């Protein structure tokens, strides 16, 4: 029995579908819209990528479609793959002939032969991705659902159409896709399918890092990314694709003293951050903030477990993790590094008396990323002790108030040195040397410590005093501040 077609017929009213159908009729080719686009109709997720499968040449249909659409349609043909794409307005329509595939053990590149629609549906990853809707006039709008994909959509289930061991072994990327769909859509992975992922986990090694990171980034962008990492862990994939994260797992106890499980803590921080921002790089910073805890872990008889400098060591680990995982080695990485390196600062500040100078230094080091850093630090408080959490919350509030006050007063966030290195060299007639750096740092420290305001004249006068104390003579004083030349210059 056909389910109620009003569920999807509305979508098929888009004229592109009847046009493709009539082109296919003229060519005598059965033709279907299939895969993610059909799935997303039922999930009410807007999608612009339409996959069309036909019995016969997909290139042929695409070429005719592009001609009929005329201006504004862009055709790309991939002869080697037997596929073609038409871009038209905001749509991307992919055409492919129905296929039957077989795989060899050491590659995910299949040997492809022409096949029937049923062959094509069999070779797809999940039942929910194997739904097809006919576009030919005679059967327009008919749903072909051989594996119960529609009912799996209703039950929120990820399941492979065939024996999952074959589906995953053919293309091990699908193990990542199963976990990604489960995280993105809030679906559960059917038991047989889940067990097959565990059995085939090692096969992930034939998948390129680029494809794995694509899936991980989709997990990271989901509402609750921890779901994905917990599944990766459960199926034994985590240690293969992300050993550094896997190493956070576990609790050690000595003399009755334990430490928290840093894996579960990290996932909680990640979810806390994800609840407050879509910024994927801030989410990466959350995932990596404690990444150096396993290698910095020590046991001290007096104070118990310590993770000294795990923030700085973590900051240093990030480039190699990014390189290995094919994450971008650009300003995004630098941003993650910065947040990981600084993530202890607001907490230390909030634990202690919140002095103006500590707040100024924090503002100076964090710059424009101060808000993100505060968000990360607030997310990092995962203690079950309510009193402790409330104390931290209050202290963070105080830090935030001070940050605002001090920024308004001293404009530290993007502070440029009030006197440049070139000016220092000219005033004291110095070549580029360490003395120039020392003078520059002295001015910066004086501003951050609140000894002088962040203003050029104050910095100039401070610099002259500093130089005098070190017997560095002024050769070319700045004329604008020489009304009352300081003594000894
Ligand atoms: N597919 C598959 N195995 C893969 C990748 C894709 O069987 N490893 C099939 C599925 O039927 C899928 C279709 O190809 O629906 C299109 O794949 P793709 O565009 O990569 O993904 P979508 O399922 O559309 O989902 P998303 O865009 O979220 O990745």
Can you offer a commentary on this structure?
There is one protein chain. The chain is of the alpha+beta class and 489 residues long. The protein is built from 25 helices and 15 strands. It has helices at 6-9, 15-27, 36-43, 58-69, 117-122, 149-155, 164-170, 173-185, 191-200, 209-220, 226-234, 238-241, 243-246, 262-276, 280-288, 293-296, 310-325, 331-342, 345-351, 356-366, 370-379, 386-410, 421-428, 434-448, 456-469, and strands at residues 31-34, 49-54, 73-78, 83-88, 91-97, 99-102, 111-114, 132-134, 143-144, 157-158, 188-189, 253-254, 257-258, 298-300, 304-306. The strands form 5 sheets. A 7-stranded mixed β-sheet has the order 3-4-5-2-1-8-9. Strand 4 (83-88) and strand 5 (91-97) form a beta hairpin. Helix 8 (173-185) packs parallel to helix 10, helix 17 (310-325) packs antiparallel against helix 18 and helix 20 (356-366) crosses helix 22 (386-410). The longest helix has 25 residues, at 386-410. The relative contact order is 0.05. The model has no long low-confidence stretch (mean pLDDT 91). Cytidine-5'-triphosphate binds next to strand 2 and helix 8.
């Amino acid at each position: 029995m056909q389910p109620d077609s009003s569920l999807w017929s509305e979508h098929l009213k888009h004229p592109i579908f009847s046009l493709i159908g009539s082109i296919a009729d003229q060519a005598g080719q059965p033709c279907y819209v299939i895969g993610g686009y059909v799935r997303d109709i039922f999930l009410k997720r807007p999608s612009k990528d339409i996959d069309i499968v036909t019995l016969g040449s997909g290139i042929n249909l695409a070429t005719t479609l592009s001609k009929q659409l005329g201006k504004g349609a862009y055709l790309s043909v991939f002869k080697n793959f037997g596929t073609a794409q038409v871009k038209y307005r905001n749509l991307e329509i992919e055409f492919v002939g129905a296929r039957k595939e077989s795989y060899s053990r050491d590659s995910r590149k299949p040997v492809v032969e022409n096949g029937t629609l049923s062959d094509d549906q069999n070779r797809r990853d999940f039942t929910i991705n194997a739904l097809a809707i006919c576009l030919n006039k005679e059967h327009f709008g008919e749903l072909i659902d051989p594996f119960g994909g529609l009912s799996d959509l209703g039950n929120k289930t990820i399941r492979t159409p065939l024996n999952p061991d074959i589906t995953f072994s053919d293309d091990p990327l699908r193990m990542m896709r199963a976990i990604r769909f489960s995280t993105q859509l809030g679906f559960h992975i059917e038991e047989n399918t889940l067990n097959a992922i565990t059995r085939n986990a090692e096969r992930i090694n034939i998948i390129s890092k680029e494809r794995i990171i694509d899936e991980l980034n989709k997990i990271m962008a989901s509402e609750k990314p921890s779901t994905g990492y917990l599944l990766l862990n459960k199926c034994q994939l985590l240690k293969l694709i992300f050993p550094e994260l896997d190493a956070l797992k576990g609790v050690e106890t000595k003399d009755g003293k334990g430490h928290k499980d840093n894996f579960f803590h990290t996932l909680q921080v990640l979810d806390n951050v994800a609840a407050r921002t879509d910024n994927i790089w801030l989410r990466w910073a959350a995932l990596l903030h404690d990444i150096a805890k396993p290698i910095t872990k020590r046991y001290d008889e007096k104070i118990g477990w310590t993770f000294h400098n795990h923030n700085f060591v973590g900051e240093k680990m990030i480039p190699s993790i990014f390189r290995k995982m094919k994450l971008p080695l650009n300003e995004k990485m630098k941003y993650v590094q910065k947040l990981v390196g600084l993530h202890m600062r607001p907490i230390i500040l909030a634990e202690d008396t919140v002095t103006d100078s500590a707040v100024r230094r924090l503002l100076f080091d964090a710059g424009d990323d101060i808000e993100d850093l505060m968000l990360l630090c607030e997310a990092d408080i995962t203690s079950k002790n309510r009193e402790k959490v409330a104390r931290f919350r209050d202290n963070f509030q105080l830090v935030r108030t001070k940050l605002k006050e001090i920024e308004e007063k001293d404009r530290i966030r993007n502070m440029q040195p009030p006197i440049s290195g070139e000016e220092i060299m000219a005033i004291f007639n110095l070549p580029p040397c360490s003395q120039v750096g020392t003078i520059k740092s002295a001015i910066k420290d004086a501003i951050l410590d609140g000894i002088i305001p962040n203003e050029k004249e104050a910095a100039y006068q401070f610099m002259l005093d500093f130089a005098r104390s070190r017997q560095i003579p002024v050769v070319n004083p700045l004329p604008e501040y020489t009304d009352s030349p300081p003594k000894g210059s």
